[in-house]
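INFO  loader      accepted 1 record
INFO  loader      residues=135
INFO  predictor   begin
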Amino acid sequence: MEDVKGLWCPVRKMYLSDRPEERVRLRVIEKLRTLGYPLSAMQVEYQVGEVGRFDLAVFTRSGEIWMLVECKQALSGQAGNKMALAARAQVGRYAQALEKRWKVHHLALAIGDQFYCIHYPTRQWIHEIPPYPAQ
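INFO  predictor   done
INFO  writer      dumping tokens
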């Protein structure tokens, strides 16, 4: 994952600057790969219209959005709480903008080593990363 040239991103197939948020994203990509998520289904820095950019989008084979992941470096104390709340609001805005065009299945926050996932249609927090769909 790391080299003198920077951090290797297997999705973009290039070296990137070594930044805390990039390290979080690369950990998420590796975790999803170990769970059977194909690299070909992942897109990094996915543009959401005029709203902004998701750190990682995972698509189903049929083109629906399986999971949108927002990555943040871990902060402690009050700053960490504020950042987590802002990130949750951010993923909600992105999902609302995208659902006009695509079905969105899951939203996720990766904060440092922690991963939080929401089943978007029901708005319920789920305790495990959902398996990548077979179809």
